[in-house]
Amino acid sequence: MVEQWKDDRPIYLQLKDQILAMIMDGVLAEGEALPSVRKVAVEYQINPITASKAYAELVDEGLVEKKRGLGMFILDGARTNLLAAEQKAFLEVEWPKIVEQISRLGLDPKELLDSTHNNAQKN
Questions:
Q1: Strand, helix or coil at 82?
Q2: What pTM does this model have?
Q3: In DSSP terms, which residues pair with 65 in a beta bridge?
Q4: Fold assignment, 11-76
Q5: Residue 72: C-alpha distances to residues 19, 34, 49, 78, 105 (Å)
Q6: What is the DSSP string of 12-61?
Q7: What would the pLDDT profile of 6-58 be if each residue is shown by its tens digit?
Q8: Domain boundaries defined on the chain
Q9: How far apart (Å, rounded) are the C-alpha atoms in residues 5 and 1?
């Protein structure tokens, strides 16, 4: 997770985004416990209410569940559901903007794909 917060968005949303990224990247696995609100608050020097609000949003989105007396746990299927939602959002919102920019710049999509493929092979 990040230690520096940006001023453009509430901290609880930034914390939530960090957790979502960790789930998508497989850093946090399904069934795994999230760090306690108190631990997150101390470690990142934020108000416990802020951390709790981020966790509540994850619960509301059906990605995390609270087990009384045990903590917060990532639900089975959370990663798959999250990836599907992020892919859909990308294809519906971001991709059309990218396609428009490619067209505006007069770039050849085939050359871009070839370039991307070649760069991926180098790495």
A1: helix
A2: 0.79
A3: 73
A4: Arc Repressor Mutant, subunit A (1.10.10)
A5: 12, 6, 15, 13, 47
A6: HHHHHHHHHHHHHTTSS-TTPBPPPHHHHHHHTT--HHHHHHHHHHHHHT
A7: 889 999 999 999 999 999 999 999 999 999 999 999 999 999 999 999 999 99
A8: 11-76, 90-122
A9: 10
